[in-house]
Amino acid sequence: MISNEIKQKLIQIVGPENYDDSKAGRLAYSYDATPQFQSLPDAVIAPRNTKEVSEIVKICNEYRIPIVPRGSGTNLCAGTCPIEGGIVLIFKHMNKILEIDEENLTVTVQPGVITLDLIQAVEEKGLFYPPDPSSMKISTIGGNINENSGGLRGLKYGVTRDYVMGLEVVLANGDIIRTGGKLAKDVAGYDLTRLFVGSEGTLGIITEATLKLIPMPETKKTMLALYEDLEAAARSVSAIIANKIIPATLEFLDQPTLEVVEAYAQIGLPTDVKAVLLIEQDGPKEVVERDMKKMEQICREQQAISVQVARSEEEANALRTARRSALSALARLKPTTILEDATVPRSEIAKMVKAINEIAQKYNVKICTFGHAGDGNLHPTCPTDARDRDELERVEKAFEEIFAKAIELGGTITGEHGVGVMKAPYLEWKLGAEGIAAMKAIKQALDPNNIMNPGKVFAKSTRKRVVVTR
Amino acid sequence: MTTVKEREKIQQQFQERMNEDELLNCMRCGFCLPTCPTYIESGFQESHSPRGRIALMKAVVDGLIEPDEDVERSLNMCLGCRACEPVCPSGVRYGHLLEEARDIIAQNKKHPLFVRIIRKMVFNGLFPHQNRMRMLTALLGFYQRSGLQSLVRRLGILNILPKHLATMEKVLPNVPTWKEMNDRPQHLAPEGTKKRRVAFFTGCLMDTMFMETNDATMKLLQLAGCEIVIPPGQTCCGALHGHSGEKNDAKELAKRNIEAFEQLNVDYIITNAGGCGAFLIEYDHLLKDDPHWAERAKAFTAKIKDISAILVEMEFHKKGLSLPEQIVTYQDSCHLRNVMKTAHEPRLLLQSIEGVEFREMKDADRCCGSAGIYNIVQPDMSMQILDYKMEQVKKTKATTIVTANPGCLLQMKLGIEREGLSEHVRAVHIVDFLLEAVKASQQQTNNQIQKKTG
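Output (structure tokens, whole complex):
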């Protein structure tokens, strides 16, 4: 609870129009895109600048009020659900692109900038910002940095982390620090920039970021490979990489996913095949043509029944957009849609796809799989009904086993969605008790009063580890 | 103000009547946010977004919050443009949820006496009675023609009205006379070979205030080879009622319309107002729980088609029409686009006219802020949305704004007036524009023949 005295102090900082503690206003920020998590904050505050953020944080630190920074609330780990109440900080005023530096190839932005707006703004200048999470039309850069978002172009171009060069951060005590900068080389001290990327708002509030840009690739081509056999598609992925080709995009969609995506997008996706790969390459024309030809050949060798190259950019874009809608489209099937993002080394992708199907059968649950196969990042998704307790329990068990399997194959419990509340009970499976202890030490040092997005990343107790049986 | 008792009742009815599966179907991905005009214009307030409103409805069902003033404000602020529906990958039918929620609130809340009287007058006393609609329009006609209008304007009497309403008075079309309105056809033969037999849904406002547009519609249908039946038993579509929480009245109107049309043995029922068409095409949803009417409603909705869709089907865009050179832009009617899924056809028709340089404005698919009676009940938000719209119009340098719904048309005219552009820019319904092109083309042919023979 926020006492009236504290409320007045906060209003003094941001003005009454930027402080909302109405029931409806709070409810609207009680959730993100993660199913089954909802919790009301005590207030929603929209600061106008870094100084205001700092003053708010100081008050929160003094009175031990939890503070949850939130972009557009599209994350999938309940990372922005205010499970311990407190203040949700929104960045609707801090949404400017401050500078596009064409000499240093950087862009400096405030956290509230929508990812796609940034991408389009730099593309107008012939520059390229590759991280493209499926929610990029909605998500903010601040959210992307805090979650270290990936996307369809991750396998060739890396993820958000690889493009953050410098940050302005408000620490839990209200101090404002600047990390990194427009520098290709910089080893002055610890790499705090990387520490804050993916920290899910648990270490500080990011108020500004300088991001790396690269030149726009000259050309791009897109194709769709169709398969009668799930594992043949997965084997193609490993074969492409093993042949030393790194495509810009290498996405996998299974039949149930294809069906729902087509139901939504209506662009003529094949729904009578078991799986498709959406493959893209960009770069100089000759390289793109050569790679596409080679990949087509590999797909055919791996029993692709057909390989179709997109005839126009519109067609290619329709395919990408359709792929990005996969998760939400799966929500058509059942009231509740639970998805994970278990990730394995890409050489293991066929084994993982096979294991997911076996686990689904074992627990008698439906699991649809799509994802960024090219970087080993799969999204097994389970359409279920939260009201069906029995099934929900089986779903949970199935996912636990998927996590365990991923780790066994040298993978991780989350590739790009983050830990948040959702995967916190499993973090120790990946890190071990010592790994958790090291991370907690960092958290303790930077946020001793645990006001920064409390309840995230670290769980109160770890899930008992399941033993994978074959 | 809602009393505690009213709130309890509203909450209880939310639990009984709101479709829980539909509410759960929203997985809160937020794909709807960038398409929501009120989310954008409110400065990205989640409670003014579709995702936020669905969360509020669900929270009332779950008992997490009460249906207080803020919840109501959020629901009232919604334009009902339904731009969130085509972009929703999960296929949530937001419009249906909103309609149900508004109905529950309206039916359980005691409005102040004057609001009740006005609602009763408008919803029950006026729209369902075409003769009264004519009477009112005739009064407006008297006002316009008798010199009263110029007197009122000279004396500045309208200045007592809020500015946007005063401007609205300026942009109302010159309406037909009482006699003209009462002398309506019931059957029209096609010009040339008969290719289709269609019924025409005239609409209440369209057949009075916008009668010229209705005449143009029928003329185009005839030219396209349609035999037209205009059943006199038809009435207002009920959209206004449905969107304002008067669902039962809407159902009664729907039944009357189904009865008027179902025996006609026509290929299509044609509409020329996106708002009406979209409501007619969802009669099957409106009457889905009524065993006596559900099937009949389905048969009715299967025949609904917008004028531009049938014109394209009849290859009207291949007629080789022409007009004097002009830049044209098109403002989508939200309901025509998002519910009737007709967006390509009007553009195709416009682009087919020689002399027309068609320029798509940015966010042409975003609501103009008219939204039924929204511009009257939510003037601030409506005008804010309109200002953005006019900015986009200006960027195209268009001299003609074409639209496909009377509400949008008036709003565009209002926008032109507000921007002081009335000297150079006009707004026109697509059928009037097409008929203009037909006439211009005929004139051209006549001139050519004269030249040759002369």
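Chain A has a mean pLDDT of 94.
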